[in-house]
Structure formats: C-alpha cells, structure tokens
Amino acid sequence: MIAGNWKMYKTQADTRAFFAAFLPLVSDALHCDIVVAPPFTSIPAAVEAVKGSNVAISGQNLFWQKEGAFTGEVSAGMLAEAGCQFVIIGHSERRQYFGETDGSVAQKTRAALADGLVPIVCVGEMLAEREEGRTQEVLSQQFIGGPGALTPEEFSRILLAYEPVWAIGTGRTATPEIASAAHGFLRRCASDQFSDELAAGIRILYGGSVKPDNIQGLMAQQELDGALVGGASLDTKSFAAIVNCN
Ligand code: PEP
Question: Is 67 a catalytic residue?
Fold first, then answer.
C-alpha cells in the first residue's frame, strides 16, 4: 500500500485539481493499494473525484464516540458515510500536538473497525528516544497500549505504520535497514501478543520523508509492506512516482 497523508493541506478546489492530474498517472498501478487522506473538508471532493478509480480515501483522525457534545470532532460513522474506507490513527502529530495517547489510539481503532473503516495505526520513536537506545522500549509500549489492546480478530483488520518521529517532514529518512529492523521488531510484538500467523499477515507501512528517490531502497526490504507519505504526496508527479516504483 502507498498512502498519502495530506495533513492540513489542500482545499476542495486543490483536491479536484490534484486528482484530475494524478489519476491518469497511476491508472496502471495494480501492484499496490493507493490511499489518500485529505483534510476533513476536502473528503467529499476527493471521494467524488476518485469514483471508479483505483484510489481509496482515508480520514486523518476520528473520535471514538458515535455522536454527542464533542465540539470539533468527527466520528467513524461520519467518515464512512462520507465515503472513507480507511482512517489514520495515532499519527505522531496527533500525539505531539493534540494529546493523543496509546489508550486513545486503542479506543479510536476499535471505533473505526466497528464502523467498517480500516485503521492505519501509527507508532514511532522520537529522536532522543532513539539516541538513548530506547527505540524498542517505546515501540513495545506504544504497541501494547494501542494495537496490542485489540482482540485478535480486530487486530487482523488493521494496518500498522512505523513512523520514526525524527524522519517525519525532516528530509531525514530511516535507512532501509533501520526501517526493516523496526518493522521486524513490531512483528515480534504482534507475535508475542497474538500469534505468528497474525504477525506474518499484518501489513506494516514505513513513513518518514519517503520520496521518489528513496522509495525503491525502502520497498526492497521484505519487512516493508508499503509507505505512508506526507510531503511528497502533495505533488502529483512525486506521489505518482512513489506509487509507480515497482
Ligand atoms: C507523515 O506525515 O506521515 C509523513 C511521513 O510525512 P513526511 O513524508 O513528510 O515525512
């Protein structure tokens, strides 16, 4: 899977223009699932634009309640009704700036699954944590408190994204070896918590400054099942080049 996270970029008009240019560039890409996560207000325009194509639309966040007095929040059912098939949960920017915790990640993931969305659950260590040699400790903690708190059946329906925080938006990509080691570690966490079978089956995306010139090396790693792309997904040509690297 190649998934694009647009963060807080692109109006509805930008979204329509993006897909008009992007869809013809990826129409032959049958080797991977292609997903784009626009901001909430651009989701209807994106869903309309990708109708009949090989691209699916994702939310970037949700709240776990079905409805209620939760100003500013959007539910899983609302995303599904708007035409989303996926939702990103626990992105490091949500954790850093909006107080998301491993517990809220688990609640949001369950809510997404209950409404038929496929959650892309993000985990990843900060630079200081890596430099202190605590990467595995942090990943293990995020795994156990978040996706590890699901039932095996729920876990079988999610994707994971390994996104080292020091690589997001910095231009500093994890080497294929570093990414592969972290993915292997997450698979071991899944195996310990659930089973070898579920661990082997889960798709784990890598995210952190993925660009057309580094995608090939990353995807050559057997442990990497795809990429979650931020900045480079905003540009039709770079995102298409990433999708079409095969
Ligand atoms: C992201 O936002 O998930 C991301 C990986 O961003 P970037 O590709 O810009 O580092």
Answer: no
Q: Please tell me the total count of domains within the chain.
A: 1
**CA within 13 Å, CB half, 62:** 35
Tokens of 149: 């708190």
Residues 6+ apart with CB under 8 A from 133: none
Nearest CA to 24 among 239, 246, 245? Answer: 239
Q: State whether the beta carbon of 229 lies less than 6 angstroms from ligand 1.
A: yes
Instruction: List Cα–Cα distances, 123 to 15, 29, 147, 210, in angstroms.
Output: 28, 28, 10, 16
Say which CATH number the domain at 193 has. 3.20.20.70
Q: Is 91 a catalytic residue?
A: yes
Q: Which domain holds residue 123?
A: 2-243
Query: Is the CB of 208 inside a 6 Å radius of any atom of ligand 1?
Result: yes
> Cα(37)–Cα(46) distance, rounded to whole angstroms?
9
Report pLDDT digits (tens) over 169-224: 888 889 999 999 999 999 999 999 999 999 999 999 999 999 999 999 999 999 99
> Any alpha helices (H) in the chain, and if so which ranges?
12-26, 43-50, 76-81, 92-98, 102-114, 127-131, 135-145, 152-155, 176-193, 196-201, 215-219, 236-243
Which one from 91, 93, 125, 223 is the annotated catalytic residue? Answer: 91
Give the tens place of pLDDT for each residue, 15-39. 999 999 999 999 999 999 999 999 9
